[in-house]
Design goal:
Length: 431
């Protein structure tokens, strides 16, 4: 029955994509974030749904009247440059047999993100993408939050299977990332059932993030709450509200959770953390030796390369840092481009927040603030997670890019068209 419902839904979305390519973008987003095709069984589970959907969406877009060019701003070009550098890095990869699968995964994500930036052209589409983003992760957040409350946090919460955020650490970071957007939708949703549902989602996401028992997620939550308090208009009221909400949640968690979190304060004696630090040094050395293109995505995991750059432990290991993953895989140049995406995004979001607050467009100002809160929390947590291939934070950047285009590009063009001198022979603006 589950397979039948899935196939009917998939066929409906595919049919809609043919006439309305943006429907394909929304479905592609859902498949990328939640991987619903991994929740069915039997022969139907063997079909490459996402690949077919991507081809269909690209084809429908090419033959449609949808925009074909990226918005002309720095964030768009940073995304393009990062994608191109990823291709260059793969061309010069140390071992294509090793790095190809990671490159293939990441470049498909970037194709989706670039297409999203082209087609997310107005408020309705921005909100449509936001709702799919929230619900794709939110369904698992509801489940994880309720599970944590009912079990007293005695068991770990895991993400959707066969996705980048399946591990408890990565899923915890994704949960923290959607909290600001849940609160944004709570504020602006008028539907009497959706409004409390969004508040419940923010609460469940908080409990589920704690339930992952991830130290990185805990640090991200802490940063998020402090940043939310700092950006609030009434710091006393916000501080009291956050305190009243946070204390009962922490009291719910078991002793084993506290034992794990306490190791943050004594990281140098934690063998797991120190093994990460050693591997970060290995990644940095490899980037210094290959500063232009790096070794290729995840190539540093090969024992021969890891040993060449000073690794003393050659067993199962992980980088546990999206920054060092990119640095080792794409070199210092690729890392610089990667960081520029975050810097430009935060700069644009802050500019949007201030500008739209003055003009009274509070939905843009508040959504830009939600993007800032989410990105900052993600950047902190991502320092200890290999989550650079997750689509979520790139979608958040795309929100910022779309809002920037709406406010500072499209409206400027409209104003110029309205104030342009009229032609002598017609009532239309002169060209």
């Amino acid at each position: 029955m589950r397979s039948l419902i899935f196939i009917v839904t998939y066929l409906f979305c595919s049919a809609a994509t043919i006439t309305y390519p943006f429907a394909g973008i929304l479905t592609w987003e859902w498949f990328t974030l939640a991987a619903p095709h991994n929740m069915i069984w039997g022969s139907a589970a063997q079909i490459q749904y996402n690949l077919f959907l991507a081809i269909l969406t690209l084809g429908a877009w090419l033959f449609s009247s949808e925009p074909k060019m990226l918005p002309n701003h720095k964030l768009s070009w940073a995304l393009v440059l990062f994608s191109l550098w990823m291709i260059i890095s793969e061309i010069f990869s140390y071992n294509h047999n090793w790095s190809w699968d990671y490159f293939d995964r990441f470049i498909r994500v970037m194709v989706f993100i670039l297409l999203l930036n082209i087609m997310m052209t107005n408020k309705m589409r921005v909100h449509a993408v936001l709702w799919v983003f929230i619900l794709s992760i939110g369904l698992f957040a509801y489940k994880g939050g309720v599970f944590t409350i009912l079990t007293g946090g005695g068991y770990r919460v895991w993400g959707p299977q066969s996705t980048v955020i399946y591990s408890n650490n990565a899923f915890g970071l994704a949960l923290v990332s959607i909290i600001p957007f849940s609160l944004y939708l709570y504020k602006y949703t008028r539907h009497k059932y959706l409004k409390p549902a969004m508040l419940a989602l923010a609460i469940c996401s908080f409990f589920a993030a704690l339930g992952t028992q991830s130290r990185g997620a805990f640090i991200s939550i802490t940063v998020l709450l402090i940043y939310m308090w700092w950006k609030s208009k009434s710091k006393i009221a916000t501080g009291l509200l956050l305190t009243i909400f946070t204390i009962p949640a922490l009291l719910l968690m078991p002793e084993s959770w506290y034992s794990r979190i306490e190791t943050i304060g004594d990281a140098t004696s934690d063998a797991s953390f120190m093994s990460r630090v050693e591997f970060w040094k290995v990644a940095f050395r490899s980037a210094l030796d290959n500063p232009i293109t790096g070794l290729g995505l995840r190539s540093i995991y090969q024992n021969s390369l890891a040993q060449m750059y000073g690794a003393t432990y050659l067993g199962n290991r992980a980088m546990h840092s999206m920054y060092f993953e990119v640095m080792a895989g794409m070199g210092l140049v690729g890392f610089g481009i990667y960081m520029s995406m975050f810097i430009i995004s935060l700069s644009y979001a802050n500019k949007l927040r201030k500008h739209c607050r003055k003009t009274g467009e509070m939905w843009i100002s508040d959504l830009a603030l939600a993007c800032m809160l989410s990105l900052v929390a993600f950047m902190v947590g991502g320092a200890a997670q290999s989550i650079e291939m997750w689509e979520g934070y790139l979608i958040i950047m795309s929100f910022i890019g779309a809002l920037y285009k709406i406010v500072f590009i499209d409206r400027v063009k409209e104003e110029r068209a309205q104030t342009a001198p009229l032609s002598r022979w017609s009532n239309t603006p002169a060209t």
